[in-house]
Structure formats: C-alpha cells, structure tokens
What does this fold into?
Amino acid sequence: MKKGQPSATAEMVCSWRALEYTLPPDQRILDDPFARGFLGTLRGGLVDGAAALPAAARRLILRRLDQALQGVLTFVLARHRAIDDLILATPSDQVVLLGAGYDTRPARLCARLHESVVFEVDHPDTAGRKARLADKVYAGVELAPTVPVTVDFARESTGDRLVEAGLDPAASTIWVWEGVSMYLPEQAVRDTLELIARLSGPGSRAVCDLLSGPRRAGLLASAQRQALDMTMAWIYSEPFLWYCSRDQIAGFFSSCGLTVLEDLGLDELVSRFGKREPGWLEAGPSPRLVVAGIKGG
It folds into this structure.
C-alpha cells in the first residue's frame, strides 16, 4: 500500500466482484450490486465495457483473467460467498471486518445483520475514500448498524481502537479477515490472531484466508510464485510476505489461541458453488480459507 493512498488491492478485488455482477444471475458465485460504485474511472470503465459485451464474452474475460492470476480471482469470489454464508448461518452480536476495504456486507446482508453491530476496520486512507463514496453508493439503501474504525496500523493498536469504538470482548463475534494476511509478516499475522482470541466471547468465529504455497512442487511452481510476488510488489506496492504450508495451519492457529474448524482449498470452495469450470494453473499458489473457533470457548 502506497503511503497516503487507499489500498490498490482493495479496489482490485472490488472490481472482480463488480465484473462477476455483469454475468447472468444463474452464473454468478456472488451477487454484489454495490461494488461498481466504489471503483475509480479506470476500473469502473473496464467493468462498464465488459457489461456491454455478450454474456459469453464476459465469461471468457473472467476465465482468462482467472488463468492469468492462477485461480486467485475465482478463489476471491468463492471465499467472499463462503464468508457471506457463514455470517448468514451463525448468530452473533458483533461482526468485525478487519481490513474492510470496499466490503458491502452491511448493505447486502442487512436483513441478517440488522440486530448485530458491524465494525469496519481499515487504514484511514482506504476508509476515507470509502466514506466519501458511500453516501452515493448506498443512497436509499438500508444498512446494518455500522461503526467505522480507522487504524494507522503502524502507530496504533487495533484492539484498543476497537474497544474504544464499542466492541464488547465478552460478546459473540464473527471476525472476517480476508485478503490481508498474505501481505503481512508472520509476526503481524500472529499478533492479529491472538488479538481475535483475546477479544472474543463464547461462540465466536474467525474466518481468514491465507496462501499455503504452490499446489505442485518444482521449478515451474517456484517460478510462478515468484512471478506473482513480483507482480503484486511492482504493480500494487503490496507484495506477498507470508505463506503457511497446509500441514502447519492448524498448529499455527492453535498457538494463537484458535481452533481450526474448517480448512478449505480452492477446489473445495469452487465445487461448493458449482459455477466454474477449472481455469487455474495447477502449479500456482494454493489459497485457503480457514474458519476457527476460540480455544475453550
């Protein structure tokens, strides 16, 4: 993330949700009618251009983009849908969106969240841009009770800011932490998971995605991982910093005070929603979605 600017990757994944919404309803993994409103001129224009094409051309664009990104696009859409389903199925007093970006769940899931409090946590630069656009995007739309929490992660404690904003550590909470862990050093990931364990009441859940390295070993897998790392660092100034091998995931979360309940890979998520033919390179990085409970809770 460039200093003084909102997150480029937050807008990037928002554009994927907007592209997905251009498909016919029965072909979508995820429905997000609000995503287009948070896009800038360039990405918004590309989405509008795609929307004007025949449906077959739109599907082809998404498939080719997914192939170029080694399956990451489809994973992002599927993880977002899986998290939606978890929120809809899990009673909770609070929902915390860590690194909220341009998340639109307070609007999309309002019927479920109207009796919960949603805390949207993000850096002031990204949160500020979202706030400037939100009035127009959400005009006339009912929203769940939402508390914006801005945190300068380099200088402030996320936990302190949340408690100051009204988070109840004794209440049942769903923590959503998507699209963030891979951009942080391992210690920062550990600190955040320990914070979640510390500020969660009985019945709480945490859902987090991560990268666990290539699905296949060898030179090709290593080269593709390096190419993806370089792309993220060069284009978005947000390089991938943390990977966790699959056989270490349960132990890592356990050491932070969390118990892994589900550990889902790309193939499992995509097959769950049945909307995509495989379009990724087998040697690419292996993104995973982890659902965890609080140890002893």
Notes: The chain has one domain: 70-294. The chain has twelve helices and seven strands. The chain has a mean pLDDT of 88. The longest strand covers residues 205-214.
